[in-house]
């Protein structure tokens, strides 16, 4: 035992002048997708690079001075350093594409709010899919030079590290980040002082410090309450990601939503579009409305003005997954806030109202206060339109404004570097500029099979090295023996990676059904017993610390992996993070995903796998329903939702076993003399060619630009011009419509022919009681299509009626339609009337519709 009090002294290495710009590289998350930059750091002192978790800033704080000096005198290192700096400089200086600069003016800016951002494992402010998607969105925005900023929270502890013990119990380990060694810096004002804002919580004011992280061309502003001037309790608001109780969650969301708007304002940043990425950030609309009402604008006009340039993306397909707070909490936290909006408590609570629940729902708030809403895959868009359907009660669900933009992943981040040389050679030096160009990627077919396969084997072998390292660490910590470890790792041999390897890694949540593979152990045993054709399953993933059933799944996987017949054939790796993800999605042969339809909103790990030539074997849910083409992987068709879960599990697992036994294993092992299966390689090439250009974030952000950001900017100018004249007009008009609507009726007038010859015209007349509205305030419409026996009818054509005279006796307005059917056969038509105004963003945004 040493005596005396130990004091700490940080000795920071002096960076040689020639290497000064290493600090710039360490402070720009460009390194999170630029592999040569990361390799450069590792060249300087490899063991340290591993010890600091591949964190460049932490690395530069403790790198050995001699190694730095040696690097600064090594011509090979300097050469590579110059090459990287020149790539870095030209990335930042690259002119904005003509296409994009024609679309945006210099006043335009998109502000993207999200509770988590996943850029790289060295910056732990993410937990999983949502955060990594947000990170990829920012990275693609940077690649395109989109005028864009992100707003999030700076978590002191971020998400937890996971260890899994011998019994399969998950242990959560939280470690404090040293903000000093994260790629962030405080935002300073003109006087060199920290930029701070505050929010009011019950009985106190909480100070918030603003930090920034640079992601290529894009800034991310991160909010932090861990400040001396805050109470201990308030300092902890930004400690944990998705930790704490409901109050902490509420406080985090207030800091993010309300604090985020204040921070941007304080910095003089004026976005023209505001993107709410998942309901956690939805309070931002309240603060924006408050700012307008403070300027004397009435609430209804302020609501229209704010909604019209707000984009909301929902990520959860179950109502229970939508964030909500009870009214008691809402009153407690917003008692002094909602009066500033000049509305009553009831009007305030109505913004988050969903019938049948006593709570204030953040999804409902986001929908009420945005005019662009989307889910994250085609199926999820439809499901969201259905579960949020009551917000537009009089509409068919398919007509409501919720659309979809399918997720994508950032190619430079997730495509393994081993591909780049081969792509350079066979696709052309500028291959990386063609991320979303479909015909371009057909060229992967020109890569010789053996060369293609050798990349696949290299990737598997590199993954196996990481698996060995991780399993070893886990095994000895759990007091296992060397002999036992050898048995566990018998198929994980980087020198001989020719073992069919199937990966399953994602959050352990029950709907993801990690254990579907184990429905029938007898069958699985049979499939896996052939020693000539070994199969290795690799599992990884964290369960939320409060998710007890999720943690139980980890125990089950662990228990089965220890059965003698599965030992060494099923592995459960701990601490799934972006690093392990990058290795696994590139290294395995097959990526397995077995969610319970339709609960996988999109799923993104399968996209990462697909672009690396890994074959997906998944339930047709989320993105895979759009990606699967019959030849680029395998599909498990979900059993109807009407059946009980037990039956769905049973039947879908049978499909899974059949596919493994009849298709996956035989195809993999149908190897030629050169040691690979030509059929497999063909599928694998097809996976890249068909899926990479579609499911990457360049395509995704492009869609957000065209479908939401640009239209939102257009509407923003229309509504905000002349001191909000447009917003006021729409708000008044909506009030007028809503008042009159209950009295609006529609009925048929006269007889319509029931049968006509093709090309003969038909005349239909309806009488509409407008209850004081003007004829131009509504549109009367006929929808007509082929009559169908099935519940779902085919596409319908739409015809608009024209307003005729008013019927003096009844007071009704007559609307007439004369049209010539373009189809033959038995047709079915419906007639409806709905409010109409040319300034609306979505023609049905009021949700009002009267059906005949
Ligand atoms: C991509 C990714 C996810 C999300 O995967 P899903 O398939 O959407 O569940 C989660 N965690 C990490 C570390 C990832 O890289």
Structural notes for this entry:
By secondary structure, this protein is α/β, with parallel strands linked by helices. It has 4 domains: 17-93, no CATH class; 110-407 and 707-716, Glycogen Phosphorylase B (Rossmann fold), CATH 3.40.50.2000; 498-680, Glycogen Phosphorylase B (Rossmann fold); 744-851, Immunoglobulin-like, CATH 2.60.40. It is 39% helix and 17% strand. The chain has 29 helices and 28 strands. Strands 1, 2, 5, 6, 7, 8, 9, 10, 13 and 14 form a 10-stranded mixed beta sheet that branches. β25 (802-806) and β26 form a beta hairpin. α10 packs across α11 (284-294) and α20 (449-477) crosses α24 (578-587). The termini are far apart. The model has no long low-confidence stretch (mean pLDDT 95). Pyridoxal-5'-phosphate (PLP) binds at residues 128-129, 132, 506-507, 576-578, 581, 603-605, 608. Pyridoxal-5'-phosphate binds at residues 128-129, 132, 506-507, 576-578, 581, 603-605, 608. It holds the Pfam family Phosphorylase. Its cofactor is pyridoxal 5'-phosphate. It comes from Candidatus Nitrotoga fabula.
The count of β-strands is: 28
CATH superfamily of the largest domain: Glycogen Phosphorylase B
The poorly predicted ranges are none
In round numbers, the mean pLDDT is: 95
Q: Any idea of the CATH topology of the largest domain?
A: Rossmann fold
Please give the alpha-carbon distance between the first and last residues.
Answer: 88 Å
CATH class bucket of the largest domain: Alpha Beta
| H/I helix tally | 29
List the bound ligands.
pyridoxal-5'-phosphate
Structural domains: how many: 4
- Categorize the overall geometry: globular
CATH level-two architecture of the largest domain = 3-Layer(aba) Sandwich
* Cα gyration radius (Å): 29 Å
